């Protein structure tokens, strides 16, 4: 159970890897694996939205290598920013809900931070996107028969 939770907190893996791991390898019931993955995926979001800009500023000052990492992450956020700007709440939710590489809660939180969105505006959209992504991942992984 703990591994599923922690796996969902890891960027890139997030719940896309945590749900199949929890239900398949850890042997959790699918509903429990999905719930634990959603909670683990959401835990870092408030910290990311609130502190990303401050952490980026510190990284820039420390070294050129860290600055290049910050620049790469900012480019990633800029690439996804248009959807969020166009559709606001729903754009951020859709960005998070699509369970593909380069999307998810971490990317959504990064985009929200780069756009200076307040946590009270960003978190509900990201949370809804994570729940939708959990349904999609569960459905794709275990088939539509799970919900019938």
TrEMBL record:
Alphabetized UniProt keyword annotations: Membrane, Transmembrane, Transmembrane helix
One Pfam match: Sm_multidrug_ex
Transmembrane region(s): 30-52, 89-115, 121-142
Designated name of the protein: Small multidrug export protein
